[in-house]
Amino acid sequence: MLLAGAEVILETKAIIVSAYPLVIEGLKAVLGISGEVSIISSATSCAEAIPKIKSLSPDVVIASFQLPDGSVCEIVKVCKLDNPSIKYIVISSADQGKYFEEALKEGIHAFLLNSVTQDELIVAIKTALADEIYIHPKLASAVFGVKRMSNDGSIYL
């Protein structure tokens, strides 16, 4: 919990899921600097992530799309039945953008590329928590043929 004047600001609770421990540690470090996100757990597979998500009820799950025993879509299918308010953010390589539609259908709230910056990640988390969809601009361009994005994030086709 953070105090800003007389206002109390609660940190967003997150679980990170990636097959790569270095990715997990990097995200922990980057998000820890922001002071807005508290990493409450991490996992390296679907089998490890599902019970943690169910028992800890994070606000957001930040996950690599592909995991050793499946994809983040499988995690969402199982976990959203118990807690539909959890927001899911996927960080993926450009070649996995072909799974974008499937991810949205399953309930993913943000789809980012591995080249995401700390600021973009924070914006994606805030967007997801507002129950809106965030799509990395490069992915939006590839998937939707976006020609231009305005400074406020509006997309022009």
Structural class by secondary-structure content: alpha/beta
**Level-2 CATH architecture:** 3-Layer(aba) Sandwich
Mean pLDDT: 84
Helix content: 40-55%
Brief overview:
The chain has 157 residues and is α/β, with parallel strands linked by helices. 40% of the residues lie in helices and 28% in strands. The protein has a single domain, classed as Response regulator (Rossmann fold, 3-Layer(aba) Sandwich).
Secondary-structure topology with pairs:
Blueprint: E1 2-4, E2 7-9, E3 12-17, H1 21-34, E4 37-43, H2 46-56, E5 60-64, E6 66-67, E7 70-71, H3 72-82, E8 87-92, H4 100-106, E9 110-113, H5 118-129, E10 134-135, H6 137-144, E11 148-149, E12 155-156
Parallel strand pairs: 3-4, 3-5, 5-8, 8-9, 9-10
Antiparallel strand pairs: 1-2, 6-7, 11-12
What does this entry look like structurally?
- It is a single chain.
- By secondary structure, the chain is of the alpha/beta class.
- The chain has one domain (2-156): Rossmann fold.
- The protein has 6 helices and 12 strands.
- The protein has helices spanning 21-34, 46-56, 72-82, 100-106, 118-129, 137-144; strands at 2-4, 7-9, 12-17, 37-43, 60-64, 66-67, 70-71, 87-92, 110-113, 134-135, 148-149, 155-156.
- The chain has a 6-stranded parallel beta sheet with strand order 4-3-5-8-9-10, sandwiched between helices. A two-stranded antiparallel ribbon has the order 1-2.
